[in-house]
Structure formats: C-alpha cells, structure tokens
Amino acid sequence: MAETSCSPSRILRVEFQLLSTRNSRCASMQTQELGSVNEMKMETRSCPRSLGVSAITLSVFVVCFSIARAEWGDEQGGLQCQISSPAEIEQGMPLELEILLRSHPRNLRPGTKALNAFLRDAFLELTLTNLDSREVFAVRPYDPTRGMPVLDEGKETIPLDGTAIKPWRVSFPLATVFDSLSPGAYECQVRYSFPDKPTSWWRGTAEQWQTAGFWHGNVTSGTFPLSIEKQSAETQAILLPERLRAEISRDEGGRTRTLVRFRKRDAKHVALPTRNGHFLGWKAYQPSEPGHRMQSGTPRPDSANPIAEWFEGKSGEKVLVTIEVFETAVAAHHHWAPERSGFKVLWKKTFTVSVKDETALPKHDVTIAYSSAGPFNGWALGHDEVPETLSIERTPT
Hints:
Layout: E1 2-4, E2 10-20, E3 25-35, E4 43-44, E5 54-64, E6 67-70, E7 79-86, E8 88-90, E9 94-103, E10 114-116, E11 124-130, E12 136-139, E13 157-159, E14 168-173, E15 184-194, H1 206-212, E16 217-220, E17 224-229, E18 235-241, E19 245-250, E20 256-261, E21 267-273, E22 279-285, E23 293-296, E24 308-311, E25 318-328, E26 344-356, E27 364-370, E28 379-380, E29 388-394
Parallel strand pairs: 8-17, 19-26
Antiparallel strand pairs: 1-6, 2-3, 2-5, 4-5, 6-7, 7-9, 9-14, 10-13, 11-12, 11-15, 15-16, 15-17, 18-21, 19-20, 20-24, 22-23, 22-25, 25-26, 27-28, 27-29
C-alpha cells in the first residue's frame, strides 16, 4: 500500500486576509478547490482612510504534484526501506526516487556496525510489474564508476545505531526499458542488496572488511504505484552538415594526414524525433575502411577536432565519408558502447569528399619590421630606421 500526499493536478486557492483598524487587528485564511487552474495571483485592497480600516488580501494558487510514499518494507537483517516516488511519469523519463532506510540496532547481526555507502547506486534495483500483463521489468541506475577505476577506502559509512539516516535521492533511467515499458499502471519496489564479501573496488584486506562490520543482505521497500504515460511527440533541431571539406595537413616531420571538417555555412538545422531520457551521439567512418570516430553529442562546425582523419592522402582524390547521428539509452562513459541499449540511428548521410592539399597553395610574403625605437620596444610596420626584416609565409583561406 502507498499513501498519496496530493492528488494529480489538484489546485488550491489559499487566501490570507489581514484587517487592521485603529484599535484591533484580525486575520483570516480561506482555502478553495479550483480544479485545473494553474496560476499565481497576488491582490491588495485598501479601504478608505475615513473608515480607519485597511484590508490586505493575498491569494496564492498552489499546484499539488502527486507524490506516492510507500509503506515501510519488511525488516531484513535489522534494516527497513521506504520509497517516495512521483505517482506518474512519461515514458523514458528518469524516475527520481527518495529512498529512506532505518535501522533497528537490536536486530542487527552480531558485529554489524554500519552501511557501506560507497557507490551505493551500484547496489540498488527497481522492479516494475505491469498490472495488466504481470510482466516484470528491472531497472538499475547508471554505472556510478562511469567505466573508470575507483577505490573504496571504507570512509563513506553510515552508522546503524538507530539515528536517522539521510534520504538517498537516486535516479533510475526508464529509457533503458523504453521499448518494453508500455504506458499503463505499474506496481513498483526497490531492493538494496549488499554483498558479504569485499567488492572489486575495496582497497583494504579481507580482514579489514570483516572488522568494519558492514551490513550485508537484501532489503526491499514496500510497493508503490506508478502510472507510465505515453510520451508526447518531441523533436530537436540539430545543426548537421550538407557538405564536408577534406584537406591534407603536414606536421613538422613532414608526415601527412587528411582531416575532414565542416563549417557553419556548410550546415543547416534538421528536426529529428527523439525519445525521452536518451542521449545523442555521432560517429563518422569511411565505408570501405575499418574503424570509426565516435563521440557523444552532435558534430560541431568549425571545430579544431576533425570529423574524420587518416594518415596519408592524395590531393584531388575523392573519398566517401559517412556520418551517423544516433540516440542511445546508455550514458557516455569510458569504453562507451551505445549499441547496448536503446540504440537508434536518427540521421545518416554519406558524403563524397574531394581532398585538397592546402599546403601546396601559393604563398604570400609579408614583410614585418622589427623596431627597437619607441617606448614599447615592439613590432612596427613601415618604420624608416628598421634594421632588419622577417619574412612570414601566409596560406590564403
């Protein structure tokens, strides 16, 4: 069972009124149900001075959002769990939950002293049961390590002595089950599971783990309702290239690379349909060659980083370069593999690019004179007493 603190779209008008006379003051407050009105209003009225009375009325329109609070789950190993959740949410949106834990010291296992809260999200799981089909779906928070090495030194602990534990606010990405989680009514629970053996990122010894007395086991919240609403249509306007430019670049050692970029004037905005909770990314590749370049976000014009590049290159040759813009339910991280969940190509185009050797263009000599005269002892142009000149080669754009 769960309690709802305020009905969806319930609007209250709360009116405060203060009457003041020369001899007394009184205040009144009224509350009125207004249905679906959504506004805030402030009103001030003054009575004629001849009456010696002034009246001030403040009207506040309050929008009450529906929040469901589950009952406490069963006590397990001296620990209980309770959840506060929105009562409804659109498909794919991240579900933000408040997770409450409370301890019962007398019922803890012998030697248990504290919760190990290091990377707590890694030990949480949300289950959603469709009330019509009885299908069950599991959702976990995103990997809190983001694919990077981490070390637990045992410093993020919470004592289990009966004192209040601060709520955990955790986001569950419903986008990871977007295609399966159809609109409808669901019954949900959250489970916290912590191992009795040291985790892979524990920095201490096994003996230190045992001495720390970390709580271990499984504790489940009470059930709470959740209504999944169909996503409203949404598009994003994204600047995408209509043309690519390829040029040969040489480094100091004479080695050449072919760099592919585009400029802002080579691009236009394209409206792409997107799904709630998903991330955008792009990749570029040569269809005839292995490998690709991939990044999160969308391709950027006039960027110092090329869309694609490869060693060598021949001026005048034509190559094919393909760009894909995609969305994924997988957040970008080290060793990102966006194809694992919710992957969908939104836009794809193959360009025929003519390689240009910019380093072979004619060079223009520019004479810059150095002058030691004057208070700044700096560079000057066209000075009559210039002792020497410096020739700079400029490449036209």
